[in-house]
Amino acid sequence: MHGKVIMGKLRRALGLMSGTSMDGIDVALLDTDGDRELRQGPAASYAYPPEIKVKLRSALAEAKGLAAREQRPGSLGDVERALTELNADAVDRFLRANGVDKGNIDIIGYHGQTVLHDAPRRLTVQLGDGRLLADRTGVDVVFDLRAADVAAGGQGAPLVPVYHRALATQVPELPAAFLNVGGVANVTWIGRDGRMLAFDTGPGNALIDDWVLAHTGATHDAGGALAAKGTCNEDALQQLLTNNYFGVPPPKSLDRNDFSSAPIEGLSLEDGAATLTAFTAAAIGKAREHMPEEPRLWVVCGGGRKNKTLMGLIASHVQNAVVPAEALGLDGDFIEAQAWAYLAVRSALQLPITFPETTGAPAPMTGGVLLGSR
Ligand SMILES: Nc1ncnc2c1ncn2[C@@H]1O[C@H](COP(=O)(O)OP(=O)(O)OP(=O)(O)O)[C@@H](O)[C@H]1O
Ligand SMILES: CC(=O)N[C@H]1[C@@H]2OC[C@@H](O2)[C@@H](O)[C@@H]1O[C@H](C)C(=O)O
């Protein structure tokens, strides 16, 4: 089933990413040889309809009880089908809007929606039906990119590091850190010789989003304005930082809800936002303890780079410059979707996508399941 992608040739891939913020589907086009050649094309986001967001929140609770990755009890099967249909619709809309011919797309890299991630139990569950997506789109789909790594004893996350490494050719000076602040935050340290070290640093925006949603109904703290008005509660922050996770050496990964915001209960909206924002930044600062050498530059991707308060705090916790991905001419909103396109091509070529230094895989290994169009 790996016949379509030939080594050395540029392949046109579409990446479909739905992250832990659970806000929708990011789509990005990438022409790549699966190695150093990267030609980023158009990209777009398609928000989940409100009713899907509500269903996803309950799916997340239902998924807690899963004992095996293929189980779909309760509403999970229905939600999976609905999400897959939304992804197929997103592909159609994207191709139409950008005048791209479906026949020219070689492969789709499909992430799905993570509803459970528990690497110690060798369990990572992404809702999404690769077979259905391949049938609906008529394009070959690579799905389940995390599963083989987890089965082999790896963390199954983060998977973006190999794409970060490919982007690092654009960084003026190494070592550098690519920091993704999504629902959860993850970092890839890249050394002068291209060596990688990657792991989830701690919370990203998810705790802040949940706090703001519960108190105001808004989806996030736009620009970090609420946090800027509040005062960090030092006791609560220190309590949050006592979590054992920060001392654990990498590789390590997190589920969306691995951290509780219990220590900030009772604080005002603004002070709670300030404290959680300080928590995300301090956790990123702690990531430095695991790095072999201080990054010369921190390149920030993901929605968290739009939170000015957070960006300022991150800068106060690290040495050297902190810049948004745009400073390197990249679009910080779509690096993960592009990464999924890149990973799909690497998977089809049977190239490694995870490494001992990124997920704790026993050796560099490929992954993903290729579902041929028919
Ligand atoms: N203007 C903004 N101001 C502040 N925060 C923002 C802004 N825009 C987006 N965000 C934050 O970024 C989040 C979305 O980020 P992103 O799309 O990178 O996450 P994700 O890909 O879903 O998550 P992950 O990377 O963990 O899988 C939103 O939930 C919100 O908290
Ligand atoms: C299991 C899972 O979906 N993890 C996500 C999550 O969101 C950020 C962080 O935690 C990262 O480890 C990962 O996503 C990115 C895309 C990755 O695998 O690189």
From TrEMBL:
Signal peptide (UniProt feature, chain positions): none
EC top class named in words: transferase
HAMAP family xrefs: AnhMurNAc_kinase
Name of this chain's protein: Anhydro-N-acetylmuramic acid kinase
Entry EC no(s): 2.7.1.170
Record key words, sorted: ATP-binding, Carbohydrate metabolism, Kinase, Nucleotide-binding, Transferase
Function text: Catalyzes the specific phosphorylation of 1,6-anhydro-N-acetylmuramic acid (anhMurNAc) with the simultaneous cleavage of the 1,6-anhydro ring, generating MurNAc-6-P. Is required for the utilization of anhMurNAc either imported from the medium or derived from its own cell wall murein, and thus plays a role in cell wall recycling.
One biological process term in Gene Ontology: amino sugar metabolic process
Catalysed transformations (reactions): 1,6-anhydro-N-acetyl-beta-muramate + ATP + H2O = N-acetyl-D-muramate 6-phosphate + ADP + H(+)
Molecular function as annotated in GO: ATP binding; kinase activity; phosphotransferase activity, alcohol group as acceptor
Species of the source: Hyphomicrobium album
Pathway listed: Cell wall biogenesis; peptidoglycan recycling; Amino-sugar metabolism; 1,6-anhydro-N-acetylmuramate degradation
Gene: anmK
Binding site for ATP: 19-26
Gene3D superfamilies noted in UniProt: 3.30.420.40
Pfam families in the cross-refs: AnmK
Family: Belongs to the anhydro-N-acetylmuramic acid kinase family.
Entry-linked NCBIfam families: PRK09585.1-5
